[in-house]
Amino acid sequence: MAETAAATDIGFATTFGPVVGSTYTALAEVTELTPPELSRDSVDFTHHGSPDRHREFKPGLSDAGEVSLTYNLVPGLADDAVIATHLAANAVEAWRIVFPNGAQLNFKGFATAHGRATPMDDKMTGSATFKVTGKPVLTPAA
């Protein structure tokens, strides 16, 4: 059996940010990132003559889900301001996730949520959620 290729890969150094034209600008202080989870609907094709009274299904439309992230909050500055601007833009925009090995996940999406937490005894954090529209494209590392 072959050794795993993932032996040295952890999430550290994964980046996320908008792509404007050909310029990618990673957000500075992302601490947690959840890439989109792909799913597919199932469509019920059961009919009165379905064999042995069992439902029959066929694959339906795919959904690329959402991207969520948490970042170190500096209210009104850096990442917080960028996310607030994109939420206010009310537009579908280009986004990119770059993994530590150089692979890229490019997708179109729009901000759907932006939150802030200011606990008394811990660091302040911001959070955001982006809805992916269309099919994301994964480009393997060179």
Secondary structure: elements and pairs:
Layout: E1 15-20, E2 23-24, E3 30-34, E4 39-44, E5 57-63, E6 66-72, H1 78-89, E7 93-98, E8 104-117, E9 125-139
Antiparallel strand pairs: 1-2, 1-7, 3-6, 4-5, 6-9, 7-8, 8-9
Brief digest:
The chain has 142 residues and is mostly beta strands. 8% of the residues lie in helices and 48% in strands.
What descriptive keywords fit this protein?
1 helix, mainly beta, 8% helix, 142 residues, 9 strands, two-stranded antiparallel sheet, Factor Xa Inhibitor, seven-stranded antiparallel β-sheet, 48% strand
Structure description:
- By secondary structure, this protein is mostly beta strands.
- It has a single domain, classed as Factor Xa Inhibitor, CATH 4.10.410.
- Helix content is 8%, strand content 48%.
- The chain has one helix and nine strands.
- The protein has one helix spanning 78-89, and strands at residues 15-20, 23-24, 30-34, 39-44, 57-63, 66-72, 93-98, 104-117, 125-139.
- The strands form two sheets. The chain has a seven-stranded antiparallel sheet with strand order 2-1-7-8-9-6-3. Strands 4-5 form a two-stranded antiparallel sheet.
- A hairpin with a 7-residue loop joins strand 8 and strand 9.
- It starts with 14 loop residues before the first strand and ends with a strand.
- The model has no long low-confidence stretch (mean pLDDT 93).
Could you tell me the number of beta strands? 9
Into which percent range does the helicity of residues fall?
under 10%
Give the number of domains: 1
Spans of 5+ residues with little confidence (pLDDT < 50)?
none
CATH architecture: Irregular
In the CATH hierarchy, what is the class? Few Secondary Structures
Rg: 19 Å
CATH fold descriptor: Factor Xa Inhibitor
* Protein structure class: mainly beta
